[in-house]
Amino acid sequence: MSEEGTIKKLMYVNRKAPYGTIYALESLEVVLIGAAFDQQVSLAFVDDGVYQLARNQSTDGIGMKNFSPTYAALGDYDVRHIYVERESLETRGLTVEDLMPLTYEDEDDDWAEKDSLRVVDSRELAALMSEQDVVLSF
Amino acid sequence: MPLEVNGKSYETDEEGYLANITEWEPDLADAMAEADGAALGENHWEVINFLREYYEEYQIAPAVRVLTKAIGKKLGKDKGNSKYLYELFPYGPAKQACKYAGLPKPTGCV
Questions:
Q1: In sequence order, which residues have a C-beta less than 8 Å from that of residue A100 and are 6 or more positions away?
Q2: Distance between CA A112 and CA A118 in Å, rounded?
Q3: What is the pLDDT at residue A2?
Q4: In chain A, domain spans
Q5: Separation of alpha carbons A62 and A133, rounded Å
Q6: pTM for the complete prediction?
Q7: Is residue B14 part of a domain?
Q8: What number is the ipTM of this complex?
Q9: Contact A32 B58 (CB under 8 A)
Q10: Given an 8 Å threshold on Cβ–Cβ distance, is A70 in contact with B58?
Q11: Which of A14, A21, B16, B66 gives a 20 to 30 Å CA spacing to A102?
Q12: Measured between beta carbons, which residues in chain B are less than 8 angstroms from residue A36?
């Protein structure tokens, strides 16, 4: 275990489509719960995980709760670094326009609303991953 | 244990949270508060209504830290602090106010 008060860099990597398995929702809940511990948190969305951030999700046909609005609350939980892999978007014919806008308010800049979401290519993402103390894969 | 209000029965979980969020009515909040030996005033309702709006938008009940910050932004600094919120909801602002608001127990509630 780390010493008390040590801030670690944590990255949650999301690889699966939002519904059909429990991974996406579980990951989101762990992020929200973990946010209470003041760590430096980032999220990465790769492979089918990019669908978790798709706009205008509707779960009417599958009888599950549509939890996609919750991603917009991440900024309130001080999660400010959300990376989406460019190659995963391109392979699926998606662009950043197909994703929900995700922002946070910067209290050091008069609560200006800033983008949390950044599209990165796989090399950048690999570099970001190697900077982390912990990478959790869902 | 079901909660009886105005002749209607509402299902709740073992901690008293409403089972079906869509059944919520303001009278339920008053009945839950009364059972806890409290009475809801205008200041309580500000927080309860805020929580319901937050849930409507984000589909979650906010953690207490998030609630405190957001209340401060919306209702002013004198209300956006834990002292004020704990005075209103001594069992924990997120937990107790969410219960009265008919929401599930907040995610990450410790």
A1: A53, A54, A55, A68, A71, A72
A2: 17
A3: 47
A4: 9-137
A5: 37
A6: 0.88
A7: yes
A8: 0.85
A9: no
A10: yes
A11: A21
A12: 63, 65, 108, 110
pLDDT (tens digit per residue) in A48-65: 999 999 999 999 999 888
CATH assignment of A9-137, among 3.40.980.10, 3.40.50.300, 3.90.700.10, 3.40.1260.10 = 3.40.1260.10
pLDDT, tens only, A110-123: 889 999 999 999 99
Number of domains in chain B: 1
Alpha-carbon gap: B48 to the closest alpha carbon of chain A (Å): 18
Rounding to the nearest 10 degrees, give the CA dihedral for residues B104, B29, B32, B108. 20
- The answer to the question of residue B108 being in a domain is no
Half-sphere exposure of A39 (CA within 13 A, CB side): 22
Q: Distance (Å) from the C-alpha of residue A73 to the closest C-alpha of chain B?
A: 6
**How many residues make up chain A in this entry?**
138
* Alpha-carbon radius of gyration of chain A: 15
B32, part of any domain: yes
Whether residue B107 and residue A72 make contact (CB cut-off 8 A), yes or no, is no
Q: How far apart are CA A128 and CA A48, in angstroms?
A: 20
B84, containing H or E segment: helix B82-88
Q: Which domain holds residue B35?
A: 3-100
